[in-house]
Amino acid sequence: MTSILSELHEKIQTQSTIACFIKRFNIVRLLIECGFTKTKGFTIASIIEFLLALVFTHKKLNQTMNTANNDIPFAKDTVYRVLNDAKTDWRQLQLKLGAEIINNHLKPLTSENRVHAIVFDDSPYYRDRSKKVELLALIKDHVTGRYFKGFRKFTAGWTDGATFIPLATTLLSSKNAKYRLYEQGPDVPKGSPGEQRREEAKQSGTKLTLNMLDQILVYVQDFQYILFDSWFSWPEVIKGVKERQRDVICMLKDMPNIFYNYQGQTYRLSSLYKAVAKQTEKKTYIASVIVDYYGIPARIIFVHNRNGNKKREWLALLSTDINLAEEEVIRIYGLRWDIEVYFKMCKSFLGLAKEFQCRNYDAVFAHTTIVCIRYMLLAIQNREQKDDRAHGGLFYLLCDEVADLDFNQAFLLILDLFTQTLRENLFLSDDMLDQMLSNFMDKLPSFIKNRLRLDAA
Fewer Cβ atoms within 10 Å of its own Cβ: the N or the C terminal residue of the chain? Predict the structure, then answer.
């Protein structure tokens, strides 16, 4: 009986949390703005709420629907019709919701001097057992070196070092048609978000980086740096970011066709390291130089490679903000780790690629966006539980009140001790003591009177 009551309480609490999240960030309004419509039957908001809560039941969609005496009012086909709709713009929904969270919730909690950044990265999205998933491709995993069937989950997210918000996500197939294993899909209306998603899936990651950045800049401008790994550190990407009035901090890869101009000579990265490694070695880094990078002044910092399986003893970081100190460049680049935590959470805990039997690319994309929104929900919950400033003005009023009480109590305690000393040593009457205290209080400075609230008296 206890376990049943506990499960019921957990379910009610989860539903209440998600319902509050939907109401708090105006998700119903955002759904309407992004083309979500329902002409009859159940509301879109109720279906989205169900999809967000599904992972917390620890069951897949089929298991949930087939459970005896389930209280779900709609059928499985209703859910799939929402996921398969090519006219709904899931990218806009994720962007607008992320912007709402950042601009109206997280920004007031963060100091203006704190660094904010956009992080770009991708992660394998495995569908090894699939055969007829639309745009399924053969993808190389650059970490393991093996090929797998699936997509590349390409994500851009905002971070302030405390909270990560995924702003834009797509599932990349292959731009090379011979690596795409299954092309067939439903007929999609021309110019619809579904058609745009499919065209985007066939683009290269470097081209998509700048396209995503343009979309993010429409809604979120509160960031100074773009962070990414060496897989995206190409001249056209870095120059494109600079053209958009932002700076890049990224890892570099030693490539034979990428060159750096230093003191009138041209070097590839490994040659540049040999030329400067012994000049400025310090504890936190090996060397730091300012180079001309295809017309852009940039700082390159060589740091020690502490990876146990290291191929070389150094790693290189590039910063287009040459005024940043080397230690600060290294610290800011460390914010990129937030996106790795996000990928791990999505795969291990939030049901990515595990809840639905989707073959339609629209449905796969929609489910990926649902997982991103779940992460936003958990990120907000985590921030509010750990950051007292999330309680808003009440927190500051409480702090002020506590500070005033501490001062008042301390002052009155000292005054009481002084009065007792006078009474015991000088044998003064109560009337004389009251008169002395009254004269003393009148001569107090105004700022002390304000703290003691004597000015109103």
Answer: N
Query: Which is nearest to 316 in space by CA: 325, 304, 332?
Result: 304
- Kindly list the distances between the CA atom of residue 324 and the CA atoms of 83, 117, 225, 283, 331, in Å, as whole numbers in the listed order: 45, 15, 12, 18, 11
Total-model pTM: 0.80
Residue 27, φ and ψ in degrees, nearest 5: -65, -30
Span 313-334, mean pLDDT?
94
Q: Tell me which residue of 178, 184, 216 sits closest to 198, measured CA to CA.
A: 184
CATH architecture of 90-391: Alpha-Beta Complex (3.90)
Confidence check: pLDDT of 212 > 90: yes
59 Cβ contact partners less than 8 Å away, ≥ 6 residues apart: 67
Check if the beta carbon of residue 227 is closer than 8 Å to that of residue 124. no
Q: Does 198 or 14 have the greater pLDDT score? A: 198
- Give Cβ neighbours of residue 427 (< 8 Å, ≥ 6 apart): none
Contact criterion met (CB below 8 Å) for 19 and 53: no
